[in-house]
Design a protein that fits this description.
By secondary structure, the chain is mainly β. The protein is built from no helices and 11 strands.
C-alpha cells in the first residue's frame, strides 16, 4: 500500500522558517517526480514546487510566490522529500500536500493527507 505522510507543519511568526517532510512507503521517491502543493482557506489547491527525477537537487521548479524562499530536496536513503521554507509570511498559511507521479506523467497519482502551516503576523 502506497502512503505519503507529511509532517513538520505548525504555527510560526512571520519571517520564521519551517521544514516539512514527506515520508513515503510502498513507493520509492528516487524513481518518481515529487512535488509540494498547498491550499489556503477558500482557495484552490496550488502548485508550490516540483523535483523531477534527475538527481537529488536538480531539475526543480518553483511557483513565483515562493521562489528564493522555499527549497525542495530529497533524501533517497530515507525515502523522504523535504520542503525548507524560509522568510515565511501570512500568505503562506495553508495546508501543504506532497505528491508523487511517475516520471514523464502529467498526473499526480499519489498524495499525502496534508500538514497545516500557519504564519502569524
Amino acid at each position: 500500500q502506497v502512503q505519503l505522510v507529511e509532517s513538520g507543519g505548525g504555527l510560526v511568526q512571520a519571517g520564521g522558517s519551517l521544514r516539512l517532510s514527506c515520508a513515503a512507503s510502498g513507493l520509492t521517491f528516487s524513481t518518481l517526480d515529487a512535488a509540494w502543493f498547498r491550499q489556503a482557506p477558500g482557495k484552490e489547491r496550488e502548485f508550490v514546487t516540483v523535483l523531477r527525477l534527475r538527481g537529488i537537487s536538480g531539475n526543480t521548479d518553483y511557483a513565483d510566490s515562493v521562489k528564493g524562499r522555499f527549497t525542495i530536496s530529497r533524501d533517497n536513503a530515507k525515502n523522504t522529500v523535504y520542503l525548507q521554507m524560509n522568510s515565511l509570511n501570512p500568505e503562506d498559511t495553508a495546508v501543504y500536500y506532497c505528491a508523487a507521479r511517475f516520471a514523464g506523467s502529467n498526473a499526480w497519482r499519489y498524495w499525502g493527507q496534508g500538514t497545516q502551516v500557519t504564519i502569524s503576523s
